[in-house]
Design a protein that fits this description.
With 199 residues, the protein is an all-alpha fold. It has a domain of 136 residues. It contains twelve helices and no strands. The two termini are 24 Å apart.
Length: 199
């Protein structure tokens, strides 16, 4: 899953949200250097990735992309699924998407000194262009994937992936709708079994 899903699946804890955002920027046992709630979020991020990467429904989404995008297919599916979470937001959340994203940016900025430099760098651009809110639009997905394509060392073709989403929109949407409740339950179970304290 991409940034929006990770943050959403963190529940109400600010610390867990920060940790889940940081999951791609903190490696190995470096998670132990953070306060308990942030460490829990980092570990949840890893568990979400593991659960998602091997789920049979997600594998179907990847299979559709792999002939064209090769090993970048999992990255693209993560972004596609964030699009569906954003575009179907009222189905999963009671607060508005704009309020949710602005609350996260505010909370993350307040805790930015805890973050690795690369995470602070990404957060700056994310907040400036409100990536999380704009994932609901195909233009936002196109911009996100094109940006990823520019940052990859090798030719990825990700700048063309939004067109693939538009072409096969309904199958991806159905797969997301089938998969996401299972991921929500998985994240809830994880959080209920891990100690947390207020950050």
């Amino acid at each position: 899953m991409n940034f929006l899903a990770h943050i959403y699946l963190s529940g109400e804890s600010s610390g867990v949200k920060i940790g889940n955002f940081l999951g791609d920027f903190v490696k190995g046992r470096d998670s132990e250097k953070f306060p308990l709630e942030i460490e829990t979020g980092i570990l949840l991020h890893r568990e979400i990735d593991e659960f998602t990467d091997h789920h049979e429904i997600v594998l179907e989404s990847k299979k559709r992309l792999r002939p064209v995008f090769g090993h970048y297919a999992p990255v693209i599916v993560d972004v596609f699924y964030d699009h569906f979470l954003a575009s179907l937001w009222p189905r999963y959340a009671t607060s508005g998407l704009m309020d949710f994203t602005l609350d996260f940016y505010h909370m993350a900025r307040e805790n930015r000194l805890l973050m690795p430099e690369k995470a602070r760098f990404v957060l700056g651009y994310m907040a400036r262009d409100n990536w999380l809110y704009n994932y609901q639009f195909l233009t936002g997905i196109d911009k996100a994937l094109s940006g990823m394509a520019r940052r990859t060392k090798f030719e990825s073709g990700m700048e063309n992936a939004a067109a693939s989403l538009a072409r096969d929109y309904e199958p991806y949407k159905e797969e997301f709708i089938s998969f996401f409740p299972e991921l929500m339950a998985f994240a809830t179970d994880f959080l209920s079994s891990h100690p947390r304290k207020v950050l």
